[in-house]
UniProtKB/TrEMBL annotation:
InterPro entries referenced in this protein's UniProt entry, alphabetically: ClpP/crotonase-like_dom_sf (IPR029045), Ech1-like (IPR045002), Enoyl-CoA_hydra/iso (IPR001753), Enoyl-CoA_hydra_C (IPR014748)
CDD domains named among the record's database cross-references: crotonase-like
Localisation: Peroxisome
SUPFAM superfamilies in the cross-refs: ClpP/crotonase (SSF52096)
GO function terms (MF aspect): delta(3,5)-delta(2,4)-dienoyl-CoA isomerase activity
Organism annotation: Zophobas morio
Protein's UniProt keywords contain RNA-binding: no
The protein's name in its UniProt record: Delta(3,5)-Delta(2,4)-dienoyl-CoA isomerase, mitochondrial
Pathway note: Lipid metabolism; fatty acid beta-oxidation
Main location: other
Lineage: Eukaryota, Metazoa, Ecdysozoa, Arthropoda, Hexapoda
Job of this protein: Isomerization of 3-trans,5-cis-dienoyl-CoA to 2-trans,4-trans-dienoyl-CoA.
Reaction(s) catalysed (UniProt annotation): (3E,5Z)-octadienoyl-CoA = (2E,4E)-octadienoyl-CoA; (3E,5Z,8Z,11Z,14Z)-eicosapentaenoyl-CoA = (2E,4E,8Z,11Z,14Z)-eicosapentaenoyl-CoA
Any one GO cellular component localisation term in the record: peroxisome
Keyword annotations from UniProtKB, A to Z: Acetylation, Fatty acid metabolism, Isomerase, Lipid metabolism, Peroxisome
């Protein structure tokens, strides 16, 4: 009991220093272990509960290779169940966010198709590949942790598919966006056509940029609702994204994750379906300690409430 009391009342002393030191060690270990998992992504932990995922093929302008597609899915499936992760910032290393699909890598499917003469059998191969790519990006949407996209310079083709699956989108002044697929003779097939009109709210604008493959510069991206903030440069963009991520990470993970689940569900269902979903969800979650602790903190004007990992 005395030990517990001492721990609870300690502030600014030895306990605080030990806690800070332990957090740094844990953070460093997490960075090293996560970094080793991926060939095309760099995953770091800039602050407690905030993870930073970077597309990490700068020498290839972060072109989305087959390996990157599937590592994105694996990464966000892992972060979904990681109790140390509450918010994710998604950005691109190097000069651009992403140049889109790695066409050279995509052609690897050609020999496999050439082995088949029948169109139905070729189609079976293609649809399996497409569903795999779709699943990888949908993992971002299904990840219960909010994902903040931080886009600088070019975001082309598959990059738009990618950010359309995130929760919030910020960009730098030099950012531009392009639904490029019609220029290479195909319809976008990994999420842009399904998610972009719902993000923007203007079906006409979404159709225009998808039919024409024209570039959308940062000011238009902001006015259209594709992004919600524009920063001066990449450095301030990443800082701003991490700052908002830190703010979210301080909130109850039960509340934040429940909010994301409900928002994603409500987008694709009727209002009544959404109301039913959140009623079922909250009949359990309102019994969580997070709800009690947050209400007491608000009533007593307590700041910096510490919520348990989830």
């Amino acid at each position: 009991m005395l030990t517990t009391l001492a721990v609870k009342t300690a502030s600014g002393g030895l306990f605080s220093k030990l806690k800070t030191g332990a957090s740094k060690l844990i953070s460093s270990a997490a960075k090293m272990s996560l970094q080793a998992k991926y060939e095309t992504l760099a995953v770091t932990v800039p602050h407690e509960f905030v993870y930073h995922v970077e597309l990490n093929r700068p020498e290839k302008l972060n072109a989305m290779s087959k390996t990157m597609w599937f590592e994105i899915g694996k990464c966000f499936e892992t972060l979904d169940s990681d109790e140390n992760c509450r918010v994710v910032v998604l950005s691109g290393a190097g000069k651009v966010f992403t140049a889109g699909l790695d066409l050279k890598d995509a052609m690897d499917m050609a020999p496999e198709l050439a082995e088949q003469e029948d169109v139905a059998r070729k189609a079976k191969i293609v649809v399996a590949k497409l569903r795999g790519y779709q699943k990888s990006l949908t993992a971002i949407e299904l990840c219960k942790k909010p994902v903040v996209a931080a886009v600088h310079s070019a975001c082309i083709g598959g990059g738009v598919d990618l950010i359309a699956a995130t929760d919030m989108r910020y960009c730098s002044k030099d950012a531009w966006f392009q639904v490029k697929e019609v220029d290479i003779g195909m319809a976008a097939d990994v999420g842009t056509l399904q998610r972009l009109p719902k993000i923007i709210g203007s079906d006409s604008w979404a159709r225009e940029v998808c039919y024409t493959a024209r570039k959308v510069q940062a000011p238009e991206a902001l006015s259209s609702g594709l992004v919600s903030r524009v920063f001066e440069d990449k450095e301030s963009l990443i800082k701003g994204a991490i700052d908002i991520a830190q703010d979210i990470a301080k909130k109850s993970p039960v509340a934040v994750q429940g909010t994301k689940v409900s928002l994603v569900y409500a987008r694709d269902h009727s209002v009544q379906d959404g109301l039913n979903q959140i009623a079922v969800w909250n009949q359990l979650m309102l019994q969580s300690e997070d709800f009690t602790n947050a209400v007491v903190a608000q009533a007593t004007k307590q700041k910096d409430v510490v919520f348990s990992k989830l």
